Amino acid sequence: MEMKKIIGLLLSAILATNFVLSLAQSKAANLEQQHIYINELMASNKSTVRDGDLDDPKHGASGGAYSDWIELYNASNEPVDLTGCSISDDGATWVFPQGSIPPKGYLVIWASDKDKVTSDGQLHTNFKLSADGERVVLKSPDGSVIDSVTYGRLADDESYGRNPDGSDEFTIFSKATPNASNNNSHAIVLEPVFSHQAGFYTEEFELELSANQENTKIYYTLDGSDPKPGESGTFEYSGKIKIKSRAGEPNVLSMINTGDYYWNPPLGEVFKCTVVKAAAVRTDGQASRTVTRSYFVDSDMMTRYSLPVISIVTDKANLFDKDTGIYLNSNKSGADWERPAHIEFFENNGTPGFSHYCGIRLHGGGSKGFAQKSLRIYADRGYDYKEKISYDIFPGLKDKVTGKSITDFKRLILRNSGNDWSNSMFRDALMHKLVSHLNLDTQAYRPSVVFINGEYWGIHNIRERYDNIYFASHYNLDKDNVVLLEVTYLGTIVANEGTDEDVQAYTNEIIDFLKSNDITQKDNYEYIKTKMDVDNFIDYNVANIYFANNDWPQNNVTMWKYKTKDGLYHPEAPYGQDGRWRWIIKDTDFGFGGPFMGSSGVSHNTLNHASENTQNEWAVFLFKKLLENSEFRNAFINRMADYLNTCFDPELVTNTIDEMKDAIASSIPEHNARWQAISDWDGEIELMRTFAKRRPDYVTEHIISKFRRFGVTGTYSVKLETDSSMGFIRINSIDLKSTTRGVNNPEAWTGKYFKGVPLTIKAIPKEGYVFERWEGTDEASDTLVLTPTKDISLKAVFKKASSTECKISGYVKPDLFSKADDIKADFKVEVLGLNVSALTDKDGYFELTVPESNTGYVFKISKTNYLSREIKKDTVLNDMALSSKESPLILWAGDVEIDGISDGAINLIDIMEVAKAFNTTPADEKYKADMDFNKNNAINMEDIVIIAKHFSATSDDYE
Length: 959
What we know:
Layout: H1 3-16, E1 36-42, E2 68-74, E3 80-81, E4 86-88, E5 93-95, E6 100-101, E7 106-111, E8 116-117, E9 123-124, E10 134-139, E11 145-151, E12 159-162, E13 170-173, E14 193-194, E15 199-201, E16 205-207, E17 209-210, E18 216-221, E19 235-236, E20 241-243, E21 274-282, E22 291-297, H2 301-304, E23 309-313, H3 316-320, E24 339-346, E25 352-363, E26 374-378, E27 389-390, E28 408-409, E29 411-415, H4 427-434, E30 445-452, E31 455-463, H5 468-475, E32 482-487, E33 493-497, H6 500-516, H7 522-531, H8 534-547, E34 557-562, E35 582-583, H9 606-611, H10 617-626, H11 630-644, H12 650-665, H13 668-675, H14 681-707, E36 715-722, E37 727-731, E38 734-735, E39 748-754, E40 759-765, E41 769-775, E42 783-786, E43 792-800, E44 805-814, E45 828-831, E46 836-839, E47 845-851, E48 857-862, E49 866-867, E50 869-873, E51 880-881, E52 889-893, H15 908-916, H16 941-948
Parallel strand pairs: 15-22, 23-30, 36-43, 44-51, 44-52
Antiparallel strand pairs: 1-2, 1-12, 2-7, 3-6, 4-5, 4-10, 8-9, 10-11, 12-13, 14-17, 16-20, 18-19, 18-21, 21-22, 23-24, 24-25, 25-26, 26-29, 27-28, 29-31, 30-31, 32-33, 32-34, 34-35, 36-39, 37-38, 37-40, 40-42, 41-43, 44-47, 45-46, 45-48, 48-50, 49-52
Helix pairs in contact: 8-11, 12-14, 15-16
């Protein structure tokens, strides 16, 4: 048996013997319950003691998990019965089973949230303790309070308890004593107190440090190292420390050559701040936690920076030792190359944002070779008492499911702008911002200036990091059920979050399926839509193609999904929680005329690059394969047009570039003096502005060229007008509202679309209004599906809803069997004599509004090649349902139109017309989709049988 398991069993037995299960023969006396005390507790057990639960699925083999715990102490000389007693935190209550605690004995209760009693008697509550502090209450069975303890913030492995046992004196212990006496325990050494908070100062001052405990001395450093008595650089505090401007001091860290390429010494003296790290040390050698503070002193400090300021403090060797320093070993990565540090954040006016001990690593691929490197911040590695940074770093960032602001972060990136480092310093951030409102995952951005151990280190872009924590916070998910896969530049798929089984699941569900099935078939495409978010994948490709991102798709491809409990697709689940694969925008530095592309990037045919690159067939396979399906292809083309008309509009994009430029412009000179890497910043910005102005025309040319064989022969203009006070128009995926990015005038909007691709336009009234009619077409439905060959102009006319208007609704269904999920869609329901109609949705449901009438209406239900029917209602004075979902209106297929005219009967003529297209599929010229009644992508005997079912019928034969 493994040593860890043996230790776990022994620990379990020791703790369990102190809780003696008893029934009527128990010696416990309820009268003695007042002698029970909450004696000690631990709210962040990282390495102190395991809970002995060998059935724990993750930690059982190691002797159990490191669970929070509460220790009870019986101060009486008799056993005390705890049966029916309860213990609770601020949110949950747990009731004790039968049992007692021995005299002068201790009982450890695991606050593990497991809610169980193990086979060996270990007690596990239904809650965990908060490291931020809360109240724990012990109650008798009648609800009266036996004892309660309120504790404050506790660091990892710190315990809070009574000293001595059962007393009213509490302290935080430097070493916990679960299931043992606290009487000989030592309190922790308290942190030294600083007289001034960290931040910005315009004048020098004297910093005082104080300790509020006897037998302690304070030690401090000014070079970023941890205070260690007797070591060089550590000073014993004996009097006030002068904090002043460091102007005139020589550069130290900034003179270290940190680049595999592009390193230059700074031009002149870099700006510096003072970093103070201090700890109190007791005579027994026990030290307090170290306190780190950064002080910026300059007469113009309050206006010096327009960006937030970050100070990173760590031992110099952690970064710059030639053998172990991460900054000088940029080819190394992983947990072994993580170093402890402290990070402080200040708003540009000096207001403190957060202060946190963390782990740091280098971040990036090839960009790690630059002199200035990206840093990854880990706030959840046990360096700090809190496992997260809590601050509104990215104002406006929200959870996509709950709508709540995201202000807690466990991982962050301080990015050097990646491969754009020597160019604009915000190229990737720009592209993320342009598509952040779409059906895509992007990384929030906020530029900052960074100091390392007090020396100016230049502009760094604060970014979110993609990992399971990111998706948990953006979609209200359990991070342990997030899968994050990456396709390497060699074409292999690896699990950044998840298992090899998840990689195989993706391969089976998507890649292998598409290799062995015809995606032009409706059923196969419907299957794929249950495995991947096709709308997301379309947006993903549209974005990267518009960006001219030539470092993709042979690189930087990452997809994720949430693993549902049953592993299936759940369309009813909130967005992101339905179990489908989705793709993310990542590392787009090579886009927008980035490195190695320059001015030629604007004309790059990224559409062909992403769908025809046979040199990397694995990279283009998925997009190329899906483009074979006409529904996907048309959706992609329309989506590209939608975004070229709105969020990729040249004026909007150039304005965004200018805004992002202005945000960092005042910081560029100091940054460039530090690194001397950017040769022509203004020229680089102008290159991006030119890209924004010219890229739409090139993308349009590429679309026409690639899809000409499918009838995409050019473009046409669409002008849409309406009164926005009454309603709005939706064109494809775009709501023409003033709140939609890129829509400047929703009342008179013009866009450009591609010929040969069906266009969907819908008029949507506001509350209190109804759609009345279109101007520019005779169509009466509020939804139009058009395939124009020339410019069109439409106006949606709304009117105030009358109090006497009635809602008419119902369901329609064809009398045939089909697997197609839209077989019930697009049946037209019109009111004869009124310019009012509606189309059924995929469930067959329709809804329209008519004025009340004493003489009633005739409702006609029709669809191309179906036998129409009419429903007469003599009066319409209230809302009315013509049919229900359980009893829909049935329509019979088979009244085939010839030259747009049907004869009102299902007869031999109809069968003869179908015979002309018999045995054809969508790939055949004679195939006619309206004769493929069951929508199985083939006109065959099944369609003849459908006609024969109601042969010789006329509209009068409907019941």
